[in-house]
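Much of what follows relies on a compact textual record of a protein's fold. A record is reproduced here so that you can trace the correspondence yourselves:
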Amino acid sequence: MKWALLLAAMMTMHAGAAESCLIVYGQGRNLGEAPQNEAWDRINARFNGAVTERLRGAGLDAQPLMLKLGETDLAAAVGLLTERAAAAGCSRVVDTAVFADTDGALIVRLRVHPLLGGIGPTATGEEPPRIGAPLYTAQSQFDFNRRTLERLNFPALAGEMVGGYLEQVGVTPPAAAASPSQSRAAPPAAPASAAGSR
């Protein structure tokens, strides 16, 4: 009986953490020429927006934070993220990314990280917040070509990936979207290469 009560309490705490504010952070990975960077920015903004919408549809306080591909100062990016999270009282970061890897594959990835130290239940007030190891990762891989980019349905991909996270933390996911391979939105201009992937 004691173990059952303890398990129930732990599950309640875990679900409660998931329901706090979430920063939905997005940035491209393939640094190149200005037109390519702009194309990747548009693609990543579509996925980030779809993830934010699905989280909000499940009743979570999701706040998007998009950085342009040309913003390469990692320390400044982390500082902005943790500052925004602290101001809003967020305890987790949802990292969204769409990029081409060095093997020529198109990767659509979602990761959920805890914010440790200065924010949330682990706050001590004596150290700046830091991003912890991923609590959840979901990733889909496709051939990197214009046809793939034209057919990708980011709302559906976001629904699948966010749904897996919500299920993990005990939150009822919103209704599923259409198939990921059938995009209903006009596609952005296709990036030219995978050069500069981070």
The two ends are 50 Å apart (CA to CA). The chain has one domain: 24-169.
